[in-house]
Structure formats: C-alpha cells, structure tokens
C-alpha cells in the first residue's frame, strides 16, 4: 500500500477513477449543476485547477516568502533550484487552466458576454472573472518572467535578480489581495 501512495501519478489516476465512478453510478447522487455532464465536468475542472492555483499562491505568500529569510544560506538552493521551479510550474498552469475552464463554463451557460460586460444577472461572476483574468495576466506576464530571473533559470546579474524577486513578490501579493474578492464573487454568484 505504501508503494501506491509513493506514486503521485497512480494516486491522481485512482482519484480520477473514483470521481468517474461517482458520475456513472446513478445511485451515487451525482447531478451535474445544470443536468448536463459537460457543464458538470467543466465546473469540476474549474474548481480543481482553481484550488491548485490559489493553493500555491497562498503557499508562496503564507509560507515560502515569509520563511525564506530564516532559511540558512546553504539550504536556500534546495528551494530555489528544486521546490520553487516545480511549484511555479503547477502555479502558472493552474492559473491557465482555471481561466480556460472558467471561460468555457461561462460560455456553456450562455453568460460569457454578460459576465465580461458586467451586466446583470452575471455581474458578480463577471467581477470574479475580471479579477481572475488580471491575476492570470500577472502570473504569466510579470511573476513568471521575474521568477525566472530571481531563481537563475535565465541569466541575470545579482542586482537584476534582487529587483526581479521583489517585483515577483509585489505582484504575487497583489494576486493574494485580488484573490479574496475574486473568491467571494466566484462562490456567491448565482
């Protein structure tokens, strides 16, 4: 049993298989939000990718950034060379797939235009969507390019690395700030 849980791919596959079983067995109580399987799968994917994205955002801001100053210098390369690049991979792709599934979900409900134009009855979800789009832009256009410099993934002088790390942190904190009203809008829109 221990070998199974040591293999993340197998654990994820088993979790997916259990979720599919909930969908296909009529007595499980599963009902897609609108009665349509595609919408149910899009909503499920949107929540899964959103948890991945925002969970890592909170990890960076609540754990990694505040803890790094107290990490001994000889241990910092373990974070900057191994942990941070892996976390940033899931962070940025979680952002991309959260936005993609969210846009597809809004389109499937025929409310994409109203949401993006902040029109009723989709105004609140639209506010959440715009906040998420700003946050995803920050991830891909500002945080990730600056993190590549700060982590030494792309060459940069020490002063440029320090500036890039600060810029990435400020925009990561901006995303933390925006995530709070974004989550309110997303979870309370009807």
TrEMBL record:
The record's InterPro entries line, in alphabetical order, gives: UCP032086, Urate_ox_N
Q: Which domain of life is it from?
A: Bacteria
Indicate yes or no for the key word Ribosomal protein.
no
**Keywords on this record?**
Membrane, Transmembrane, Transmembrane helix
Transmembrane segments annotated in the record for this chain: 41-61, 82-109, 121-143
| All copies of domain Urate oxidase N-terminal, residue ranges | 120-190
What is the designated name of this protein?
Answer: Urate hydroxylase PuuD
Q: Which organism is it from?
A: Sphingomonas limnosediminicola
């Amino acid at each position: 049993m221990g070998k199974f849980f040591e293999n993340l791919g197998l654990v994820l596959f088993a979790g997916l298989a259990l979720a599919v079983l909930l969908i296909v067995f009529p007595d499980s109580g599963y009902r897609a939000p609108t009665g349509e399987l595609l919408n149910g799968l899009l909503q499920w994917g949107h929540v899964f990718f959103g948890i991945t994205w925002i969970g890592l955002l909170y990890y960076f801001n609540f754990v990694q950034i505040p803890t790094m100053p107290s990490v001994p210098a000889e241990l910092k390369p373990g974070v900057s060379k191994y942990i941070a690049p892996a976390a940033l991979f899931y962070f940025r792709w979680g952002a991309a797939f959260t936005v993609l599934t969210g846009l597809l979900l809004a389109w499937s409900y025929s409310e994409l235009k109203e949401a993006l134009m902040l029109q009723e009855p989709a105004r609140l979800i639209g506010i959440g969507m715009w906040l998420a789009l700003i946050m995803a832009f920050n991830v891909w256009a500002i945080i990730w390019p600056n993190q590549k410099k700060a982590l030494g993934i792309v060459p940069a002088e020490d002063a440029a690395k320090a500036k890039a790390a600060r810029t990435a942190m400020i925009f990561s904190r901006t995303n933390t700030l925006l995530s709070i009203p974004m989550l309110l809008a997303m979870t309370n829109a009807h």
